[in-house]
Specification:
alpha+beta; Cytidine Deaminase, domain 2; 2 domains; elongated
Length: 199
């Protein structure tokens, strides 16, 4: 299956119904976090509510392709996480612990907030990354607004984390923001120092 396959087509293949697939694909902010009440408002009966809820549960479970994944660029990170996080109604942050070859060691859920942000400190990210033996780490979070532009809070937290992570010997390689309208890499923007540079 091509990575460019339309989501409506994919949903239709899974659910076996073009009309339901279209309704879900056009749902505001995506279908992955729709509540039972919202599914009712979309006109889906109890049968489809159960099927969509089951599909939502499956999409939130672990992804078997990740343990062998090697992250070489911000586009690699965006490709893996945009499909999972961009359509969510609330903000989430994940730390990706990698080894010296940028291969995934662990995916660490850091925070799950509301529609307007999350409160996080560098220690909340570094503690689990160090515990699992990360050589370095990547940070990923979504913007439910659809706009991947980093906020001042995003920039401030990233600068602080980059400095502390470098001092701890577990450098921050990138912080990627994913959203419906695209992705932003703070490393590509020059906002995260190259390993060994002064923050």
């Amino acid at each position: 299956m091509s990575e460019t396959t339309d989501e409506t087509e994919l949903l239709s293949l899974v659910l076996g119904d073009d009309d339901v697939a279209h309704v879900l694909a056009e749902a505001p902010a995506g279908w992955r976090d729709l509540s039972e009440h919202e599914l009712v408002k979309l006109g889906l009966g109890e049968h489809w509510q159960r099927r969509v809820s089951a599909l939502q549960d499956l999409t939130k479970r672990s992804y078997p392709e990740l343990p062998d994944k090697r992250f070489l660029s911000s586009s690699d990170v965006a490709r893996v996480y945009r499909a999972r996080l961009a359509g969510a109604l609330t903000e989430s942050m994940i730390a990706v612990a990698v080894n010296g070859r940028n291969q995934l060691i662990a995916e660490l859920p850091i925070a799950h907030g509301g529609r307007h942000g999350i409160s996080i400190y560098p220690a909340d990210i570094l503690r689990p990354a160090i515990r699992c033996g990360a050589a370095s780490l990547l940070l990923v979070h979504n913007h439910p607004s659809g706009d991947p532009t980093p906020s001042e809070d995003d920039l401030e937290m990233t600068r602080a984390l980059a400095a502390i992570a470098e001092a701890c010997g577990v450098p921050l390689l990138d912080h990627v923001i994913v959203a419906r309208d695209g992705c932003t890499s703070l490393s590509d923007l020059g906002l995260i120092p190259t390993h060994g540079e002064e923050p």
